[in-house]
Amino acid sequence: MTILIKGGTIVNAEQSFRADVLCQDGKIVALGETLERASGTKLIDAGGQYVMPGGIDPHTHMQLPFMGTVASEDFYSGTAAGLAGGTTMIIDFVIPNPQQDILEAYHQWRGWAEKSVADYTFHVAITWWDETVHAAMETLVRDFGVNSFKHFMAYKGAIMADDEILVNSFTRALELGAIVTVHAENGELVYRLQQSIYEKGIRGPEGHPLSRPPEVEGEAANRAIRIAEVLGVPLYVVHNSCRQSLEAITRARNEGQRVFGEVLAGHLLIDDSVYRDKNFDRAAAHVMSPPFRAKEHQEALWRGLQSGNLQTTATDHCCFCAEQKAAGKDDFRLIPNGTGGIENRMEVLWEHGVRTGRLTMNEFVRVTSTNAAQIFNIYPRKGSISVGADADIVVWDPAATKTISAKTHHQKVDTNIFEGMKVTGGASHTISRGKLVYSGGELDVERGAGRYVERPPFAGYYDALKLKAKHSEPVAVRR
Ligand code: URP
Ligand code: ZN
Ligand code: ZN
């Protein structure tokens, strides 16, 4: 398919300019002030609109087996919902069960993702440790284009990584030229607090945020940062929800440490009052970790994004329907953790970021796409409107209006955390790998059209880091 996007203003992270865009065979092949339309070329009139790199959501969990159930949104429906909102690529997570062979888990997720309608790639979680994991990490980097490893510092008794695992895995990642990422919550403290809150008789969703206060996030973020500092490995902290973790990141960055921070659209816009809703279904629909926070944290997170101390925005899209959330009807600890948002991330950030003046349009592109592409080493193939880049493009109509609702969204979940929010600005057309997949409010997607994207390691840069690292001797692998 050849597509000519005519009359729009290109908005990249570094600049905006008027140009037409020609897409052919999945790539952007030409930019020019007035490109001629050849016969057979599909024309998209982008007059009065912005032409931006498709969004990259660097944190999703499609069809994740988690807390006794499986996330309702699968790779087909989830990537389709993303396209309807202008997101053309996801970075999902392979999460091996404790003791599950890491490569087996990786292939399991690759199989599940084959039905994706947009491009995808995987962070791989290190949930346990022995010499097979040590070896598998190399295979993943060398043979499968994995350059990021995830560590859950929470979820004790399940997938939690303790300090020993962190140190082993961070050391190995540095050797391999991969970046490490963490879910920062002190799992031991969460476990204790959950027990004591439950024993006090608090059984409903209001117990969830009480058991996961900002301090447990701040502690874990700081610990991961300091471990990464000692070992000399770059670190990416996922879903920062509070001032405490942001402060830990800001301090480290001010000291010159290579630390990145992600924030979820939900954490920027939703506060913890949702957990005090007397309706179980509505409150449980918001149970995710880390939880939504008191309002003052939202302002801090916006400032983190504006100042560049937080670089990416994500959704942690991990959907569970009411009947799944009901598993925790009598015990908040059993409510499957997770919320959605992939379809709405771009529009709510435009509404509350660009339209409020908190973000310029270029900053919007940077935090919804370009920074993720750069941090995870797929730039400028992704995250850029430039010749040679993948034709993953969103044509953005700044005048489009809508009210977000679960009744009309494409996401396969029965609630929407942004329910009732009015937004101005949204995707009028989405192009994925050079194919028009969303226009006029309609999706036209092909099951399996999405491709796995390999991400090369950060070899040269890491070689320099290893020479510089003070404490980078390999840590003995335990049997
Ligand atoms: O509550 C959440 N965030 N569920 C998905 C797993 C995770 O912690 O990211
Ligand atoms: Zn998490
Ligand atoms: Zn997550």
Explain the layout of strands and helices.
Layout (H helix, E strand, L loop, with lengths): L1 E5 L2 E3 L4 E3 L1 E5 L2 E6 L9 E4 L4 E4 L1 E6 L4 E2 L2 E2 L4 H10 L2 E8 L7 H12 L5 E7 L5 H14 L3 E5 L10 H14 L2 E5 L3 H13 L7 H4 L3 H18 L3 E3 L5 H12 L4 E6 H5 L10 H5 L10 H13 L4 E3 L7 H4 L19 H10 L6 H15 L17 E11 L18 E11 L2 E5 L2 E2 L15 H10 L11
Parallel strand pairs: 1-6, 2-7, 8-11, 11-12, 12-13, 13-14, 14-15, 15-16, 16-17
Antiparallel strand pairs: 1-4, 2-3, 4-5, 7-18, 9-10, 18-19, 19-20, 20-21
The structure holds N-(aminocarbonyl)-beta-alanine and zinc ion (2 copies).
One zinc ion (ZN) binds next to loops.
Any overview of this molecule?
This protein is of the alpha/beta class and 479 residues long. It has helices spanning 75-84, 102-113, 131-144, 163-176, 187-199, 207-210, 214-231, 243-254, 265-269, 280-284, 295-307, 322-325, 345-354, 361-375, 459-468, and strands spanning 2-6, 9-11, 16-18, 20-24, 27-32, 42-45, 50-53, 55-60, 65-66, 69-70, 87-94, 119-125, 148-152, 179-183, 235-237, 259-264, 312-314, 393-403, 422-432, 435-439, 442-443. The strands form 4 sheets. It has an 8-stranded parallel β-sheet with strand order 8-11-12-13-14-15-16-17. A hairpin with a 4-residue loop joins β2 and β3 (16-18). The model is unreliable at 470-479 (pLDDT under 50). Bound molecules: N-(aminocarbonyl)-beta-alanine and zinc ion (2 copies). Residues 61, 183, 288-289, 316, 318, 337-338 line the site of N-(aminocarbonyl)-beta-alanine. Residues 59, 61, 316, 318 line the site of one zinc ion.
